[in-house]
Amino acid sequence: MRAVVLLSGGLDSYTAAAIAKAQRFTLFALTVLYGQRHVREVEAARAVARALGVERHLEVEVDLRAIGGSSLTSDTAVPRDRDLEAGDIPSTYVPARNTIFLSLALGWAEVVGARDIVIGVNALDYSGYPDCRPEFIAAFERLAELATKAGVEGARFRVHTPLLTLGKADIIRRGLDLNLDYGLTHSCYDPSPSGQPCGACDSCVLRAKGFREAGVPDPVLLG
Length: 223
Prior knowledge:
Layout: E1 2-6, H1 11-22, E2 26-33, H2 40-52, E3 56-61, H3 97-112, E4 116-118, H4 134-147, H5 149-152, E5 158-160, H6 168-177, H7 202-214, H8 219-222
Parallel strand pairs: 1-2, 1-4, 2-3, 4-5
């Protein structure tokens, strides 16, 4: 079985990919260089892909800075120490990002003969992004049937979201059960020039909360 996995270099995508590998999928990893300010995550994606032993790691450039609308693709300040219970969608939301990423994954899946796509979205410990919800994933699976030659010919694409209903601590525990080295990953939205995490953006806060609740130290901070 072949699967295209969206690999960002973050904790979630690494864990989702490892779960797929444990299910005996042959992994085709796709990393998108979209003009993100935290481009350090691409280096992490390369390290994670090597650790996973993927069949192929494809990097695609789709520069979303021209579209803008996000603090991750502009010079707008990344929010720090934000109230994660506020319910608003933060400026780190990148318009239509997961729709674009899944579309690229779908295209490559059709080419390599895969009918499975893996994405590490999470609808529990996340920042309220609308494209991380189960109804979005279900809608994209329906779109895949309508939008592809393979779908018209009867193939059924499935988007796997193994982390969708897990808290960050449970995700970390699952990864540790799979012997993952989270020291390879990068999560911070606004790292220093040397790549050190800021410790205060949503992603850093959620990561810290996960390791704290899992009762293990974050290897990135130990390094």
